[in-house]
Amino acid sequence: MDHAWHVEQREIDRQISRRGTRHAWESLDPSRTALVVVDVVPFFFQDNPYLPGIVPRINTIAAALRSAGGTVAWVVPGRPERRRLDDELRGAEIAEVFRGSGGEGPVRERLWPELDALDGDVYAEKTTFSAFFPGRSDLHEQLQARGTENLVVTGTVTNVCVEGSVRDAHELGYRVVLVADACAARRDQDHNAALYTTYRTFGDVRPTAEVVKLFA
Q: d(Cα 41, Cα 112) in Å, to the nearest integer?
């Protein structure tokens, strides 16, 4: 099952009027580009029919970027300290469930098993929603050590951890492309709201087939 995704034409027209083109970038230097896969772990596959469909697309992008000399980075939820705030917001039982959503053990072993994670990829935990929030993940430092300037972002949930990661990555100075058909939310409305916000302010939005061509 795939999201019926779209970006509103009025926003596309606005961007064309501002910069002269629909998309900000027509190519990405693969040696300076990383695919960032956010939270594609078994916990989020429960009762979400959209998630299985994004896995083959993530693998397609990963293979294309690796073959072009780029980086693939896998990010999973870590186990943050328990906070009264989270108990108040979600209820203590649900807050504790989400604290354990990333599982235990090495990051690679906690990923959804159909993902093509390989030796030489980047692996990181995050202990907040965003994979780029300072002090809560070492993903930024790992990518900077590889000279990364561009990010292709996929994963789940589109309007929570994925969008949060896109926002913070933009603030850190990365060029960000969010892959519209390689992310999953709970509903089309939530997914499309995140695409709209990203395209309007924080990065570009493209489907898998177009993203792969950027590496050429």
A: 5
3-49 pLDDT, tens digit each: 999 999 999 999 999 999 999 999 999 999 999 999 999 989 998 99
Is 4 inside any structural domain?
no
The span from the CA of 108 to the CA of 112, in Å, is: 9
> Is 165:88 a contact under the CB 8 Å cutoff?
no
Tokens describing residue 156: 């789940």
Q: Is residue 37 part of a domain?
A: yes
3-state secondary structure of 38: strand
Whole-number Å distance between alpha carbons of 114 and 99: 24
CATH number for the domain harbouring residue 195: 3.40.50.850
Number of domains making up the chain: 1
Q: Look at the pTM and tell me if it is higher than 0.85.
A: yes
Domain containing residue 40: 9-214
Q: Tell me how far apart the alpha carbons of residues 58 and 132 are, in angstroms, rounded to a whole number.
A: 20
User: 20 vs 6, 13, 176, 210, CA distance in Å?
Assistant: 20, 9, 19, 19
Residue 76, preceding peptide bond in cis (omega within 30° of 0): no
Chain-centroid distance of CA 122 in Å reads: 14
